[in-house]
Amino acid sequence: MTPRKPRAKQTGRAPSLQQIQASDNDYEGSYYPPPQAVKRTNTDLNMSVLARYIPSIHSILCIAASCRIFTFSPSLHTWENSGIEGTLFVYDLTPSADGLERYGLVLLNRRGPENFIVELRDMMTVELGGEYLILRFLEGGEEKCVGVWVFPDTEQTREMCNGKIMECWERCLRQELQEMEGQDGERFREEGQDLGDVSFLEDETGDEIGNELQKKGRRLSLRDLFSGQAQNEGYL
Fold first, then answer.
1. Paired strand residues for 109
2. pLDDT tens for residues 158-172?
3. How many CB atoms sit inside 10 A of residue 158's CB?
4. In terms of C-beta density within 10 A (0-12 exposed, 13-18 middle, 19 or more buried), how is residue 134 classed?
5. pLDDT in tens, 109-127
6. Dihedral sign from CA coordinates of 173, 137, 126, 187
């Protein structure tokens, strides 16, 4: 019969439950819970995406979930789908070096890599024409005419976005007129014009101001100042 090996002597006993609890209670260190992930809102996510294309963006003013860009063909006298379709954002930018407000709009194209990005201060005209918001501007020395078509997912979506774009453009226009007033203000003051209201641009006295802005590459009203040309070319 094989002899049993002698068991090694135990040097100590297993700690009791009271000893373990006492050891835990003796710990004096501070407990730091793991950091929680910061919850980001839809606005935060949209701003992070837009900042890739517009680094100077300040805030989002209006959003239309579905929008299309059409271009006007002078030869065919018709609107053509540009293939740019997606979400439209109206936003404000950080002011210019001389303190002028800046606004813009961007349509993130879901059908291709080309987005539609413009700054409203560069627009020659911004005009409502039926279902389109018509923008005219210079690009590469050539005049372009595009129509912004907002899908009316609700009754107020199109009206709200078009109204916000018009409002921002008129603010830019007022600031430009105020800048002109600072350069040649006596002429406007003698005529008693109020630069806080752009409605005077449609009066007879607005022709002179319109000529001044045309020298700077901007026309005021597609319907009033250039209605004849616009109708002949088929914009309206």
1. 86
2. 999 999 999 999 999
3. 19
4. buried
5. 999 999 999 999 999 999 9
6. positive
